[in-house]
Amino acid sequence: MKTVLLILTILSSLVINAKNLSEDYSRTKKSLSKLHEVELKSRLKDMTVVLLPGILSETVIDGSKQPLNFSLLLGDYFKDYMTWLDSVGIKNTRIIVESEDTVENNSKFIVDQLRKIKGDIVVVTHSKGGNEFLDVLLSEKSIRKRTKGWIAMQTPFYGAYIADFFANTRGLRIGTEWVFTFFGGSLDGLKSVGTQKMNKYHKLNKSKIKKIVQDINLLQYVTYIKNEFGPESPLESLRDLILSKRGRNDGLVEVGSAYLPYGNYIVDDGVDHLATVLNFKHLRLLPSVVNRYKNWNFNRVEHIKTLLYLNTSKLK
Question: Cβ of 18: how many Cβ atoms within 10 Å?
Fold first, then answer.
């Protein structure tokens, strides 16, 4: 598996259609101004920004019907994005799925929800939501035509090692299955983003995925966290486990799995899998230590502004 991931990483740097926008991301983020907001509003006129969350997302969505909800502690999933989009008058909607269900089942639900939205769309996905939207694009030509941009953040396109670990490790499997069932899904929901399932998925759909992605304005955002002194991430123990088995990762998804070898991409360090969509302010127990790391003070508004600005540049 390490060999496969290495090959994928090498290929991603060689394919002509893939472009590294990491420097553009850093430069644009530092220079954001009101003019960027005005330009974005103009580009996205008559469009809707659609937000698709990842696995276990309902547990951190305010007002969800889950038996346990952690939004008071971690914030509301995508809330910072939605608040800012509303403030500048950009239409947006968050599609709430049964996030513990399978990629296949959720993609069908997402198709039904997208059909209710009029006009063109720019889609922002996080984690498993990216796998689900890719499945939507493969199955629905009408939605492909309406999709003017796709921002895929921290997506386990080729599967996540941690999904394999929890789904297949004796002693953990039973507890994991109980958790996923308790929250309304099944263990198959986790397995659907495992490496075995996703690698088979890409082998079966390789040529179709390549064509679709090349025709869509795709921007992929990939992150990892270095192992340093102090608590760099709430996902530190998982980061360390994946680091020992698969290399650099964001606490849940390894870099080698997180972007397709075609389409623009950004690689950012010091940002964990949850910081892009949730607020960590209530977890800062040791501010003198955690304030050293941008992960704990990640600015989600500046982040989404920058990604949308880069992704919609061709819509001028």
Answer: 19
Does 206 score more than 50 pLDDT?
yes
Burial label, 285 (beta-carbon count in 10 A; 0-12, 13-18, 19+): exposed
If 0-12 CB within 10 Å is exposed, 13-18 middle and 19+ buried, where does residue 256 land? buried
Residue among 158, 191, 195, 130 nearest 9 (CA):
158
Q: Give the largest CA-CA distance in the chain.
A: 55
pLDDT in tens, 271-291: 999 999 998 877 776 777 777
What is the dihedral sign for C-alpha 135, 139, 142, 148?
A: positive
- Vertex 223: Cα angle to 122 and 282 (nearest 5): 90
Q: What are phi and psi of 10, to 5 degrees?
A: -65, -45
Length of the chain measured in residues: 316
- Cα dihedral 202, 248, 165, 229 in deg (nearest 10): -160
Measure CA of the first residue to CA of the last residue in the chain; give whole Å.
42
**Minimum mean pLDDT range among 66-75, 198-207, 213-222, 255-264:** 66-75
Model pTM score: 0.91
* Amino acid symbol at 269: D
Name every residue whose Cβ is closer than 8 Å to that of residue 187 and which is 6 or more positions away in sequence. Answer: 167, 173, 176, 177, 180, 181
Residue 153 φ/ψ, nearest 5 degrees:
-100, 125
Strands 264-269 and 147-153: unpaired
The single-letter DSSP state of residue 20 is B
Strand partners, 94: 51
